[in-house]
Structures are given as C-alpha cells and as structure tokens.
Amino acid sequence: MSSNPAQPAAGDMTPAEYVKAMDALSEPSFWFEAFNAYPQWVINLLCRLRTVHNWIPGWSLVLGHEEVREALSRDAIFPVGWGGKMEEVTKGEGKEGANFVLGMENDDHYKASYKQLAECFPLKDLTEHITTATAKRAGEILASKEPGKPFDAAQDLMLAIPAGLCRTYFGLRFDEKDDVLFAKWSLGPSSYTFAIPGETPPPKKAVSDEGAWHLRRIIRDSMAAANTIDLKTPMDRMMKKGLPEKQVMAQFFGMVLGFIPTDVLAGGNILETLLRYPKFLERARAAAVAGDDDLLWRCLREALRFRHINPGMWRYCPEGHTFASGRKTPAGKKVFIGYQSAMFDARRIERPHVFDPDRCDEDYVTFGVGQHWCIGAYIAREQITQTFKPLVKLRGLRAVGHGRATARRFSDIFPISLPVVFDK
User: Fold this and answer.
1) Which of 360, 420, 411 is nearest to 388 (CA)?
2) Backbone φ and ψ of 349, nearest 5°
3) pLDDT tens digits for 292-344?
4) Which of 105, 72, 114, 89 shows the shortest CA–CA distance to 190?
5) For residues 388 and 138, what is the distance between their CA atoms, to the nearest angstrom?
6) Residues with Cβ within 8 Å of residue 378, at least 6 apart in sequence
7) Which of 83, 211, 381, 414 fits a 20 to 30 Å CA distance from 284?
8) Cα 291 from Cα 272, distance rounded (Å)
C-alpha cells in the first residue's frame, strides 16, 4: 500500500476512482490545443524557412518531407529512447520487465520478436477477425442510437471497438462491459512511455501505474487461460511457443499500447477533422454510401493528414547526422521529427492544403517509415475504416453544441469524449 493516501499504489484504485483521476487530467488546455490541434501555421512557417532547425537548446527540429523520411529510415543514427520505459511498464512487483519491438534496436532480439508477432498476428486474420468483426460491432452500436439524441462517439466507438478486438481477437480475458475501461487503462502507460523526456507529474504517473497494473493483470490471466491446442487467438499461438512469461507479457503489452491508444488518437482526430470540415465529411460519406472501402480509407487518411496522430515523434541523435539535402543535426541532440510538417511540405507535396484522397502513398508518413513502421498498420486501417463506414453514413452527423467540434482529451492528447448527434 502507498504511504500517501492521496496517491494510491498501483491496483488500489476502484474503476470509478481511476476514471475520476483520468478526468482530472483531461481539462482542456487552450494553449496546447491551439498548437497541437492544428499546428500547421507554426511548423509550416518553420519548414518554409528551413527544413532542419538547431536553435532550440538540446533539440533539433527535422521538418522537411525528405529529411523526415531519411531520419525515420536511419534507426541506428536516430534511435528511439523509450525502451527503458517499455521495460518499466511491463514489469510487476518482484518481476522483470522486457522491451517490445517499438523500443528495440535492429538486432537479433528485434528480428526474433518481430517474427513471433508476424506468426501470431498473421495477415490472413484481417478479413474475419478485424474487418468483419469491426463492421458488425460498429453497425450494432450505431443501430442502438436514436436520431436527435446525442451519444459519445469517442467512448462508444473509438475506445470501445479496439478494446473489444483485444478481447475477441487478441485473446485477452476481460468482460465486454469493461471495454471502455480497458481502453482507458491503456492510455495512461502510453502517454507516459512515449512522452518527451522529463519529469512526469505525480497524478499522471499514478494513472500510468494504475493502467499498467491492470494491463499486466489481464495479460497474465489470459496467458494462464490460453488454449494451446486449438490456437484460435494470437495469445494461444504465442503461449504455444513456450516463451518466458516476461517476453509474452512484453509482446502483448506492446501490441495493446501500439493498437488502442494509436487508434483512439487516429479515430478521434479524424472525426474531429471531418466534423470541422463538412466538405471532407461529404467526401467520406459518398465513399461509404458507395461501398468503396478503399476510397473511404483514403478519405480518412487524408483527414488524418490535416490533424495527424501527433505533430511529430522524438528520437535521439548521439553521433550527429548530415542529411542528403546538406542539412545537419548536431551530435547529442534530441530530435523532433515532424510527421505533420512532412505531409505539408510544399517542396514535396502538391497542393498541401487541399483535401485530396487520391494522393500517392509516398506523400504520407501516417504509419511512420523504416524499422519502427507501425507493426499493426493493417489492423489499424481495417478497424478505423469499418468503424467510420456506418458512422459517416448518418445524415446530419454533427458535434453537439455550438462552435467547432472539440474533443475532451486525456493529457491533452487522447480524445476520450466527443458527443455527436444525427438526424432521422
């Protein structure tokens, strides 16, 4: 038990207390929202002036499209810095933690771990377990909603559906009624693990520790209940391999952390963007009505370009690097790699401020590039597309209230509430 009654030890919070603690960290921040929601006006200006900036103490800003792709493709030169945190959140009391592919260097351990994941989460599962299951559940959720009565699209769809897939597809054992709670448990450790280096405020760390404790508990319960004969789920297949507990824990903890928070962010940001730009929504709706899933995905991906999952990701640059363009990042800098600016760089992107679903794939860095390209990209694409397909078909879909659609966000990042309404 914690000696500080105001900050319970991990596992001590009731679900209601956890949600309350998360809500306390979800108060809107005007300045953060002003920059983080639609930061093109800042980063585009910086990118136009120079594609790489080194004037911020301790940091290098890599903003140009070509430089961003090069940085993401050079993992040895620009290594990630959250491997230690991955080991921290996956370990329990008296146990060892382990790293996940998102935090690894490209070595033999990484290659073996990646192979395990590819074998346990094969592409052949997409149609039955992701596409069909998501379409069915999204349709059922929206069929239960009444025209003219608001519902929370972030909670009912963006949080609940990916969490449900962790239960029905991944093979994690928890009750359906806890889908949204399970998703919220994943957001705390995600915001902690991938945050820019610095001291984490105690309330935020407490939410991270509590969420990580519950994820570990559920993964261990699921490991114990796995069926190593029928091998119907990735958990069954992983347990069949006879791997050490800490390695299985890291694999599934990492898959949850890479899946739910990312899709919550993507889904919430896409929906907020579609609601703020009715013409974007109409393009997506026409694709959904026509049953053109490929075009619908391209509309959603283009909406995500206007508000990406985050403006950028950070890396280290221990030895320094000179880009093909001649721009340099000095040794010892932390590096901000601008996903958002790369997809709006007029040197490479034609008509960057125009909504164009027919852009070529090379214009996007939606799922990253290189070694740390999103391992769950195909799952994410199918889940997001099938979640939005019945949603954007709703006539008169709009945010509740007046003004622009604005989601309430945990830690200024993850959309956890966005009420909408539609017409009959």
Assistant:
1) 420
2) -100, 120
3) 999 999 999 999 999 888 888 899 999 999 999 999 999 999 999 999 899 99
4) 89
5) 8
6) 123, 126
7) 414
8) 22
